[in-house]
Amino acid sequence: MLATGGTIAGQAGDASKTAGYKAGVVGVDKLLEAVPALSSVARIHAEQFASIDSKDMSAALWTALSRRIDTLLAQDDIDGVVVTHGTDTLEETAYLLHLTVKRAKPVVLTAAMRPSTALSADGPLNLLNAVSVAASQDAAGKGVLVAFNNQIHSARDVAKTSTYAVDAFRAPETGALGFVQDGRVEFQRTVVRPHTVASEFSVTDEWPMVEIVTSHADASRVTVDALVAAGARGIVVAGTGNGSMHATLTHALADAVKKGVAVVRSSRVGSGHVMRNGAASDDALGTISAGTLNPYKARVLLMLALASGAQDLQRIFDTY
């Protein structure tokens, strides 16, 4: 178990409050003590990998975490890894690991929407379920998973969809892979797109600058021009609807493409897919469709693709 902090390790002075707490202050040993049933599921080796609020997650930590997981899973006496994480960037970390961990053994992320000191804290049950999934032979070969609120999700599809609810994590387009309850782990579908051992990507010590801009009413080109001037190698657009972009923003992004910046169209909507528009947009502008990836996951994939030197970026987004 690799603990990175987050709300699951959060602490507040008032048990009746679920806001205004300090994230990442409860150590992993205390998290384990709160769930005695874990000892009946697995023999657990715990590491305090980081102690952060996940809004402050960094690419450097991603690199270190992916490499540590690979090192652990290479050991014969380790059957799986559970990562405790904050909810804010969990979907990004999970997808990054989904594409860079090079082992088929289970890797399961979990988190909590309520701090450990809150009434009806959801962290202990999520932790027990995550360990149950990681200990299940059925979880092997399915890539990185997220266990949350009795559901099992693929790292590629899952997203945080609520600011407060304990069922905050869902896969809007595809649904959950399965469920875990009272120790029973059941998968009802599998993962189709390549991941982990079938992925062409690895983490790096030198990450390219990739940023996200949003299209909205009366959008300007100020942000795009500033990013290009700052040396950004990629820009993901959280577009309206089917990845559409304000005319002013479109002109700025077309200029960015001419300067060698990779531009990916995603959507700010929250579900659905962004179709490649062909001659009507993407072919003319030189932009790439993100498919069903939200802007934050599209950024992760674009960073990995640029770091690897990949040339056919549309193929990358169509594949992963």
TrEMBL record:
The keyword Hydrolase applies. It holds the Pfam family Asparaginase_C. InterPro entries: AsnASE_II, Asp/glu_Ase-like_sf, Asparaginase/glutaminase-like, Asparaginase/glutaminase_AS2, Asparaginase_C, L-asparaginase_C, L-asparaginase_N, L-asparaginase_N_sf. Residues 210-313 form the Asparaginase/glutaminase C-terminal domain. The active site is at T7, T87. Residues 2-191 form the L-asparaginase N-terminal domain. Keywords: Hydrolase. One of its GO terms (molecular function) is asparaginase activity. Substrate binds at S54, T87, D88. One of its GO terms (biological process) is asparagine metabolic process. PANTHER family: 60 KDA LYSOPHOSPHOLIPASE, L-ASPARAGINASE. Belongs to the asparaginase 1 family. This is L-asparaginase type II. The gene is ansB.
